[in-house]
Request: fold
Amino acid sequence: MSFARALRYAVLALAFARALDAIAMNIDDGGEWNAVEDDDVREVTNDGRCDVRRMSADEVGSGERVEPVVVIDARRAREIFLFRENTRKATLLRTYGDREITLSSADTYSSEKRRMTLREYVEKGLKPVNGDARANETFYWFGDHVDDRGTNGLSELFASYERLAFVPRDADVAYSFGIGGPMSGVPLHVHGPGWSETIHGRKLWFLAPPEPAPEFDPNVTAYAWASERVRLGTNGDMLQCVVSAGEAIYFPNAWWHATLNLDETVFMSSFVNYARKGGRESGGEL
Ligand SMILES: O=C(O)CCC(=O)C(=O)O
Reply:
């Protein structure tokens, strides 16, 4: 059989398997994550404005950077294929739907935690965020993968995620996987450097250098803040950029940042300890 014909059969088999999956899981959106129309996010994205330098994976290099950057071709298609498949809505629900996950409240300090199954979260927790809700009443899944006994309930999934080529092989990395519904996200906060790769959907990022520290209310949702950020007194010229599936953004050490998922968005952050040379990978703290 010719290669082209074999490829055609493989694509057909995949489409068939996906359709069966969606039927078996009783998911009416075909097993894919829902996307929001461009027109419905235009206001919050400022018409898709991007102030962060965008470059290709070949250009970026693997050293620690002092400014944010977006890599537009974060992977070769082959490298991400498996992880993208494993994190389709239908596949995740079939494989991990009954696992318990830990949600964090979406205030600056992630001050509260809540446990539920992944299925419950996908069915009930991905509704568009209500603009009037307080951030500590809004729950979001990112990070916190290791339970009290030190077990990562998603270790098989993490094993199918390949380190980004521009994260040094010998640096320690802590991974933080997450899924957020439209207009969910985290208000301004700071921590060490790293990358966030968007796997499905789109995520809007806001970034500002460590000084001057912006003024903001840590209990206002990222959505309410992003819609009215100038009125709320925050640094109006903060950088912003939409990071789409297949792209990765770098957040430098101690830079302020806030996030807003525009669609049902799936992402993986890699917190990188550039100084520690062990090459260890974990789903918890560095
Ligand atoms: O991806 C997000 O929404 C939040 C990422 C982040 O800044 C964090 O995990 O601290």
